[in-house]
Amino acid sequence: MTPVHATFGEVAAERRIASVPLSHVSVELGHLYMEDFEAGPDRLREQFRRVAPWLATVRSLWRERVPGGRARVSTCFLVDDYFSRFSTPAELVPMVLEAAAEHDLSIDYLARESACAQSGGVELARLVEDRLVDDPPPETDGSRPPVKETGWLCNGSRSPRTAPLQAMGKARPWEPPAQNAKRGHSIFVDVELWDEKGPRRTWSCPFLAAVWQLLRLGLLRSEGRVPLPPVALDGGWPRDWDGLPAVVRLNPQAAPFSAYTTLSVLSPRFLPVELAVRTILSQVAVDDEVLRQVATRSESEGVRLEEELVDRISYVFV
Amino acid sequence: MLVFAISDKGGTGRSVTGTNIVYRHALQGNDVCYLDFDFGSPTAGAIFSVSAVARGTPENGLHEYLRGECPQPRRVDVWAESDREGLRTRPPGAGRLVLLPGSEGGGELSALTDEIVGRCVQLFGRLEEEFDLCMIDVSAGRSFTAELVLAATVRMPAVPFRWLVFHRWTRQHIIAADGLVAGADGLLDVGSRFGHDREDLRDRIRFVRTAVLEPDAAELVGLRDEQRAWLSACDSELRELAGRHGVGRTAMLGKIPLDPVLQWREQLITDEDVLASKIANAETAAAFDELAKKIVDDSAWEGL
Amino acid sequence: MLVIGEVHTGLLQNSGEISESTCRQVLGLMAGESVRVSRRPIVHALSPERLTGVDCALPAASRSRIRGVGTVVSRCAVTGGRVAQGSSYVRVVRSETDRRLPWSHYLSRPGVVEVLGKAKAADLAEGFTGDPAPGCLDLGAVSGRFLDLVQASPLLDRRAPFKIPRTSLRWVAETGEPSIRFTLHTEQERTLRLTHPGPFTPAVVDLCEDLATHDWLLTSLLVIVERARIGATPGAQAVARLAPAIDHLMHLWMPAARVEEWLTPFWESLERRPGFTRQWRSLVDRVRDQVAMNTLALLSATAEAGRR
Ligand SMILES: Nc1ncnc2c1ncn2[C@@H]1O[C@H](COP(=O)(O)OP(=O)(O)OP(=O)(O)O)[C@@H](O)[C@H]1O
Ligand SMILES: [Mg+2]
Asked: Record keywords: Transcription included (chain B) (predicted)?
């Protein structure tokens, strides 16, 4: 008898990673906080007026870049329902859509900020937190756990402790913190990721913004599945934010929500937040398999992507 | 099992008794280790007669480890590295006997940081995996070291631990030992502040009387009747005092008689010291042996 | 150039073996990533992989300073609900530049450490399996911490049936003419040099972990048999000391169970020399004989008592 070749498989022992449809670019038309809302619809109109020309520019740039000119561009808008709750979807969303329409902007997807913390049983923020890999200062050999300030993330090494740890020991002179990738001089950034009052953890705005970028880049998976896929809303706008899906598809013809790259058009007051976001994103290790999926896909349609994640994110501050 | 050895006052016999208990426990067939957390004066190496680390180790000592200056603390295999002939071969059936020395020239901890507690937890967790008994000499009195181990044990709730409080059989010592446990900012206070359950912690603490001279001891044979009567009166007065201070018989795990050898030199009492050279008293060795058994005997540790 | 790794293996700190579902919880080291479990021929659970950033000297036998930057991949495993492991490795490759790049560059190459400047694979392989100088890449420390993570899980009762040291296996894998060399150093330290045909795949890591598991089993059974002092103590006492091995270790021997077919010849050659399974069998037989003899003695003693 010839030897029998046996194969044996166990589903639970294999890892499956779903793929996600991707646009070329996801453009964030705005991010609405309570203070903007309180300032009235004029503030919103002003925002859209500033955004409109940039959206047009991005579209034409991508049309040139994509073979055949079939650029897939999707737009999105984020409402803060995490740090403060204001108004209701039923009241707010139509107002936003109207203000956008006045400048010929169509919002394809509307998302809730709290979904970046958790939604539908998926704690996206935890998911990203567990994927942080600290940028090691030189001489990090793995022999000790990474130096951590609980709830904080920095881009280098903090000032060492000066007080001695030993009775009658010498105190160390003060030393400045240092950025790992400094060019001559440091720009040291230390970002608070969350704080905890009692059992409740509040994620910081830059951390949720980092999650938001990863979601838009289609780089997150939970148990191999794509978290928070956009949902079309049938029926009217709910009276309560919790009744609203995490990401709502407003335009049935819209290009996919997630994209190879993102562009955010923001007011310059968000500059420090976005520096913090980049500090975080440059230390997130995205799943290997997901990165490969995106790379294969983009190559197959002739789009060359920046190798590093932070370089796939761009901004216009106006 | 982690066993913390503490005393209120210095020079009570904590180190000598602790090391002898550990030694006896090893002879009883268990794998044991001794951690010299007496950072101000780490001299356990001398008691084990390992001259290379008699006053702590020049490199990779426990302080350095806790301060994050070395990845792992040095381990000394006493059976292999002791200078004493009688200790240098592992007796048949004996377990491993390992010393983790402190750092030479080290000083008491002057602050407690989260990293230090984390390192302490890692150390205890790993040692407890491989040793039946880990004795930690926490030094004398209220110290950051005592705080450290209280904080560390809160973080490892499933790891069994016990405390031994050493004291001499005198007025001052009895009052002080009680104060260290139950007094303001004592072990129970600080422990419960860190998150230990006060009653549970109390159940894990026992007292050990060191260098005890019994009124009927052989050493006292030459005394005059008046002297003997006076000693006897003192002893019963102390017993009464101890009872009032919660340091009495029920809370006592054992007592070690005064021994001429230990009075002159800090060392392990081997069977050879008792049987061959006959310099040490058989009662002393027997008391260590007994304590080494009781320390893991749950019936000796039932709630008070 | 080469792949280097280190596996730490220990007894899971729990009174009994843990169930598959507990394994899943204990090994759930990353939100949103599931634990991979295979059930045949023995339950084996593998945690999701996590990364640790490093920028340090690599161990070189020549003691020349070779700087590497990148990420270490680590994971934990529980075999048979009883044996726990922390395992880390890196693929060492030459960097295209001489300076350190932005961190995101290294994050897009998980498990790769790039060497800045010149280095020889042989020098690194010798250095890593030799006696690495302090301050060099310490994969053992990383693996040790991952194993701590498992052992400190609140789901474990920490009442392990016996005390036993962890063992460490440091390994180097290179591509070339197939060969394998397994070396025992101190009581707890082992090294493995492996040359395999074709490019490196994670299956090589599986092989190293499988070898580490079995080496630990063998080492631990030896310790328990030694502690029992067969012949020097009364039979019943020796058998009582052997009991934990019977209850917790003896059914776990499944060499090469999870090793990909193309790598099984490596296991087989180790079976010829030094012969892991041969030694295991002889120990197991010894334990069984002791138990049988003790039972016989008990039976005849009872019979004797009955006759009287
Ligand atoms: N049972 C005993 N009989 C006689 N002398 C003893 C006995 N136990 C300890 N000693 C002696 O008492 C002295 C103090 O003992 P030891 O060094 O063990 O105390 P300690 O509490 O560890 O002190 P420190 O706080 O300084 O570390 C030593 O000289 C020791 O030999
Ligand atoms: Mg002392």
From this structure: no
Nearest by CB to residue A285, choosing from C107, C138, C141, is C107
- Nearest alpha carbon to residue A79 among A26, A33, A116, A120: A33
Partners of residue A143 in chain C, C-beta under 8 Å: 134, 138, 141
Residues from B contacting A (CB-CB < 8 Å) are: 39-40, 63, 67-68, 71, 106-111, 113-116, 118
One-letter identity of residue A240: D
Q: Does C90 lie in the same domain as C20?
A: yes
**pLDDT mean over A244-249:** 94
From the CA of C308, how many Å to the nearest CA of chain B?
Answer: 36
Gap between the Cα atoms of C260 and B301, Å rounded:
53
Whether A166 and B109 have beta carbons less than 8 Å apart is answered as yes
- pLDDT tens for the 308 residues of chain C, in order: 899 999 999 999 999 999 999 999 999 999 999 999 999 899 999 999 999 999 999 999 999 999 999 999 999 999 999 999 999 999 999 999 998 999 999 998 999 999 998 999 999 999 999 988 889 999 999 999 999 999 999 999 999 999 999 999 999 999 999 999 999 998 999 999 999 999 999 999 999 999 999 999 999 999 999 999 998 999 899 999 999 999 999 999 999 988 999 999 999 999 998 899 999 999 999 999 999 988 888 888 888 888 87
Q: Is the pTM of this model over 0.90?
A: yes
Q: What is the mean pLDDT of chain B?
A: 94
Domain total for chain B? 1
Distances (CA, A) of C162 to B94, B101, C158: 16, 25, 11
B82 lines ligand 1 (CB under 6 A): no
Q: Are residues C139 and C223 part of one domain?
A: no
Look up residue B57 and give its DSSP letter.
B
Same domain, residue pair C169 and C117 = yes
A168 touches chain B (CB under 8 A): yes
> Using CA positions, which residue lies closest to atom 1 of ligand 1?
B211
* Domain, as residue range, for C43: 2-217
Residue B150 covered by a domain? yes
* Whether residue C223 is found in the same domain as residue C277: yes
**pLDDT tens digits for range B156-167:** 999 999 999 999
Domain boundary pick from C163, C190, C217: C217
Distance CA B18, CA C270 (A): 46
- Shared-domain flag, residues C223 and C213: no
Tell me how far the alpha carbon of residue B301 lies from the centroid of ligand 2, in angstroms.
25
How many helices (H) and strands (E) are present in chain B, helices listed first? Answer: 13, 8
What range does the domain containing B191 cover?
2-297
Q: Is residue B302 part of a domain?
A: no
Spacing, Cα B298 to ligand 1 middle (Å): 27
Ligand nearest to the CA of B8: 1
Nearest residue, CB atoms, B110 vs list A145, A150, A165: A165
State how far Cα B158 lies from the chain centre: 22
Residue B304: inside a domain: no
Name which of A280, A310, A301, A126 is nearest A217 in CA terms.
A310
Q: What is the mean pLDDT of residues B204-210?
A: 97
Please give the ipTM for the structure prediction: 0.95
Contact A140 C136 (CB under 8 A): no
> Does one domain contain both C105 and C247?
no
Statement to judge: residues C223 and C209 lie in one domain: no
Number of folded domains that form chain C: 2
- The CATH number covering residue B43 comes to 3.40.50.300
Per DSSP, the residues of A98-154 read: HHHHTTT----EEEETHHHH-BTTB-HHHHHHTTB---PPTTB-SSSPPP--TTEEE
- Pick the range with the lowest mean pLDDT from A304-313, B119-128, C96-105, C295-304: C295-304
Q: Tell me the per-residue pLDDT of B239-264, one tens digit each, with 9 for 90 and over.
A: 999 999 988 888 999 999 999 999 99
Tell me how many residue pairs between chain B and chain C have CB atoms under 8 A apart.
47
Q: Verify that C213 and C148 share a domain, yes or no.
A: yes
Domain boundary pick from C217, C248, C263 = C217
